[in-house]
Every structure is written in structure tokens, then in C-alpha cells.
Design brief:
Beta-lactamase, 5-stranded mixed beta sheet, 462 residues, D-tyrosyl-trna(Tyr) Deacylase, Chain: A, alpha+beta, 3 domains, 10 helices, globular, 6-stranded antiparallel beta sheet
Length: 462
């Protein structure tokens, strides 16, 4: 063997041995911590899975049931957002096209205003200056006037062809659908597909005082809430029941001591809400008159409403665990890769990305991109591997910056019925950089208590 090559081999071996010996400093404390968890009475019947990987080598430092298939809850968003950044790029922007099909004469446009839904989750959001409703409407009015239209007569429609499946995931629980975090993903989303209601107590239940979506306080809400001292809105749920005459059936318990209680619900018809709000704005700004006018004129583009860059959307998706954003990313990557937007194809795109990174996803079973479906199944090894491989991607800094700082670590948290999870990055006490995933399912104590126990384990690595 040549001298230079021999020295290189020796140096590589030295690095590997040094890295492994340094990482060993956390092994025994972690193993001991898991022994204590196994003895914990509230975790006797729980599934505990953990995987810690060396960032540089991808080697397992410590693991416990790393190949156990469990629900990831919102830690799945790390998988979805990493895939979206890879497939679409951090500068990708949704573009909602606005066109007009009709005649323009004497500054009067007669025809149809068409909004082409692009699946943009930020349209009408108040998180960004340029996506707020007034900004969106001002852009449309300005663009109409630039085309010589100062009065509009006709109708407004939304083209919804971008997605090919249902708006609300069939694998979500009934108690989630109808609440803001269970909002469906539509070709045209509006104000993040959520709105607020104000509830006031009655003798035996509650009634809706007002709502921010403009719905009928009496007809659109069936209230079956029961008074319970100390109960918060976390114990009240909005159900969508076809047997009811109202859109929302609100059940559960809620404290009657407060003068008002606020709940956030999901919009079921964001496209119709958008049309109603835009129509009201146009009537005020340019004498819009609704009228069904059939036109055979050539369709012209009026403007394009452009979202913030994907980097910003991913940031808020992970920081605030926005299910709507994650599902939009899931279907958008499907539309980008397969020219058809659906959950099935979006998940297929995520699997392709993982497989390209040489991550075995053969047993992984996913139903959505946000983790709300309790039937999702993934392993901590797959999640930790995705995080480890992502450090080699050109958009890694954008991805890393999107992860919340929790308990002194950059990681995503997750919580659904009976499951708590964490996934992210850590610099071990011996300076080894690592990725990890941690899931506990089936505990019998409170979620707050399990959170504390998991933090105690993670603290052993710092």
C-alpha cells in the first residue's frame, strides 16, 4: 500500500474510533434512563421508541425499539417539509391566477372573473403583510382597472382542478374535523381555513354570540356543550354531522364561569367564503353587480397572487405546527411531480425522496402529511435518518431554522391521543452532533407528565 493511501486509511480509522468513543459518553446515561422509564407505572403498557444517530456517519449511537412502527403525530411534518424543500426549492411560490372571460366596453367588464386555485395555504393569512385579505383584494381591483375595467358585471367562480381527491382526509377522526387544526386542504384556501366563534353561557349550555366568518349564529351552529367547572376549549369539539341541519355541531364540556369563551373552527367552504368576501369588496370599490353572463370571448389574465417563498411557509408550518400548510405541501409536491394533486401521490413523492436518500420505507404507512391521522405508522429510525440525511441537502439551513426551540433543543414536537413525540437535532455533551426521534404511545398518565419524563431523557444527552 502506498504511503499516502496508508496514512489516509489510518486517519479515517482514527476519526471513526474517536467519534465512536466520544459518543459513548451518552450511551450509559441514556440506557439507564430507559431502564427507569420501563419501570415507570404509567408507562408499563406503553410503546417506547428512540433512535439517536451520529450526523457525520449515520451510525446508531443509542436506540430503543427503533424499528417499532408508531404514529409520529406532528413530527411527521419534518418528513413533509424536508421533501417539499427538496422537490420545490426554498424559493418556490404559489401562484393563484385571476382571469376574466367576457367583454370590456366603456370601462364596464361583463363576464366571469375566474380564480384558479393553486392550493396556496397562505392566501388571506394575517401572518404576512402581502397575503392579508385587503392586500389581495386591492391587487385584484388594481389589476382590473389596469385592464380598463372600472365597473364589473357578471359572476365570480373558482377553478378547483388542481387537486384530484377529497378536501378532508378520510383518515382523520370525527372529533378533529371541524376544528381549526382539522381544516381540510382545498384548491382555494382562505384565511388559513379557520375562523373564530364567541360562546356565551346559557342556563344549561352555550350559544354563539358572534363569529368571524359571517355565518348565521343561530342556524349554522348546534351547541350541545355541557357546563363543567374548569373545563377549557380543549375539551370542546366541533363535529360535522350530515344528519344535522347546521354546519357545526359543538359537543363536549366547557366552563360557564367566564363571560365568553372563544373557539377556532375550520372553514368547510373557503372558496365560497372567498367569493362572498371579494364580492362585498368589489361592490364597495367598483360597483360590482352579480349577474350570470355567458361569454364566448377569449379569457385574459388579470393578475397573479403570489405567496411568500416556501422557506417562509415551511418556517411557520414547523414553528406553529400548521396542519393546513403541511397538507398543502403534500399535495403540491404530488402536483409538481405527477401533474395530479392528491394525498396518495404526495405520500408517494415523500417515499421516493426517502428512498433516494437510501432510507428504507418499505414498512412505513402514511395517510397524510401533517400527522393528524392516527393510523400513520413510521419508525424513529426513519425519522432520525431523514433528519440526518437532510444535513447534506442544500436547503438544510432553511429546514433547520424552521424547527422550534423546545427545552433547549431544535426539534419538532407532536401530540395526538395517547402519543407524544419529538424529533430534531442535538449536540451531545461530548460535542458530537446528532439527530434523534423519540415516541411514546399508550401511556396512562397525563400528557404533561409524559412530556416531563421525555425531557428528562433528552436532558441526559446535553
Amino acid at each position: 500500500m502506498k504511503k499516502g493511501l496508508f496514512q489516509s486509511v489510518i486517519w479515517l480509522a482514527f476519526i471513526l474510533i474517536t467519534t465512536q468513543s466520544r459518543a459513548q459518553s451518552v450511551v450509559q446515561p441514556l440506557l439507564h434512563a430507559f431502564e427507569q422509564l420501563d419501570k415507570d407505572t404509567c408507562l408499563k403498557k406503553a410503546d417506547i421508541s428512540f433512535c439517536l444517530l451520529d450526523i457525520n456517519t449515520g451510525k446508531v449511537i443509542v436506540e430503543k425499539n427503533k424499528d417499532k412502527l408508531l404514529a409520529p403525530a406532528s413530527t411527521l411534518k419534518t418528513f413533509t417539509t424536508a421533501t417539499a424543500l427538496y422537490v420545490l426549492g426554498e424559493n418556490y411560490q404559489y401562484q393563484t391566477r385571476v382571469t376574466f372571460k367576457g367583454t370590456i366596453q366603456d370601462k364596464v367588464g361583463k363576464g366571469t372573473l375566474i380564480i384558479y386555485g393553486a392550493g396556496d395555504p397562505s392566501l388571506g393569512s394575517d401572518r404576512y403583510d402581502d397575503t392579508k385579505p385587503d392586500k389581495v383584494f386591492q391587487q385584484i381591483v388594481k389589476a382590473l382597472k389596469s385592464k380598463g375595467i372600472e365597473q364589473l358585471e357578471g359572476n365570480i367562480i373558482v377553478n378547483k382542478s388542481i387537486y384530484t381527491d377529497e378536501n378532508i382526509n378520510k383518515d382523520w377522526l370525527d372529533e378533529d374535523v371541524g376544528n381549526y387544526y382539522g381544516a381540510g386542504i382545498y384548491p382555494l384556501n382562505w384565511k388559513e381555513n379557520k375562523f373564530e366563534i364567541n360562546l356565551v353561557p346559557t342556563t344549561s349550555s352555550f350559544e354563539v354570540l358572534n363569529n368571524t366568518a359571517g355565518y348565521d349564529n343561530k342556524k349554522d351552529f348546534c351547541i350541545e356543550l355541557i357546563h363543567k367547572e374548569g373545563a377549557t376549549t380543549e375539551e370542546a369539539f366541533a363535529y360535522i354531522e350530515k344528519s344535522k341541519s347546521c354546519m357545526y355541531n359543538i359537543k363536549g364540556v366547557l366552563s360557564a364561569k367566564e363571560a365568553t369563551q372563544n373557539m377556532q373552527l375550520a372553514r368547510l367552504t373557503p372558496d365560497k367564503d372567498f367569493i362572498r368576501d371579494l364580492s362585498a369588496y368589489l361592490k364597495k370599490e367598483m360597483a360590482f353587480k352579480t349577474n350570470n353572463i355567458r361569454s364566448y370571448e377569449q379569457e385574459i389574465e388579470i393578475t397573479r397572487i403570489v405567496s411568500p417563498p416556501l422557506a417562509q411557509l415551511v418556517y411557520w408550518c414547523n414553528q406553529k405546527s400548521l396542519n393546513l400548510y403541511a397538507e398543502s405541501f403534500c399535495k403540491t409536491i404530488a402536483s409538481h411531480m405527477f401533474k395530479a394533486g392528491s394525498w396518495r401521490l404526495g405520500i408517494s413523492a415523500m417515499m421516493r425522496y426517502a428512498n433516494a436518500l437510501k432510507i428504507n420505507t418499505r414498512q412505513v404507512q402514511l395517510k397524510d402529511g401533517c400527522g393528524l391521522a392516527e393510523t400513520n405508522r413510521i419508525t424513529t429510525y426513519v425519522l432520525a435518518s431523514m433528519l440526518q440525511r437532510n444535513t447534506k441537502e442544500k436547503n438544510h439551513q432553511t429546514f433547520y431554522a424552521s424547527l422550534p426551540s423546545i427545552n433547549g433543543l431544535n426539534m419538532k414536537s407532536g401530540y395526538i391521543g395517547g402519543t407524544r413525540s419529538y424529533a430534531g437535532y442535538i449536540t451531545l455533551k461530548d460535542s458530537t452532533k446528532a439527530s434523534f426521534a423519540f415516541i411514546i404511545h399508550g401511556y396512562t398518565c397525563t400528557p404533561k407528565e409524559v412530556k416531563s419524563k421525555m425531557f428528562q431523557v433528552l436532558d441526559k444527552m446535553k
